């Protein structure tokens, strides 16, 4: 299993490197992330559970680390995280199923 603390430290170091090479990109990404975090209708825990579920589909390990930490800080339990992941798994399977139908349509032509 991954050492998430070491991973996070290494990722931050690489982030500083990218920031030195392309500061405007990092500033824009930081601004986008900050804007997305300022929700008016979702509480922090709900927002982070959504983010955790999405990270399972997008497979961004840095996002996984950050949003699991934020979800836990917002009070999410391991059980709630597991349920959010269940939604992600089901939707990912649904997407594959729907695309399989498109493949069959393409094969019929």
Automatic annotation (TrEMBL):
It comes from the Bacteria. InterPro entries: AhpD-like (IPR029032), AhpD_core (IPR004675), CMD-like (IPR003779). Residues 23-105 form the Carboxymuconolactone decarboxylase-like domain. PANTHER family: ALKYL HYDROPEROXIDE REDUCTASE AHPD, BLR3452 PROTEIN. This is Carboxymuconolactone decarboxylase family protein. It comes from Caldovatus aquaticus.
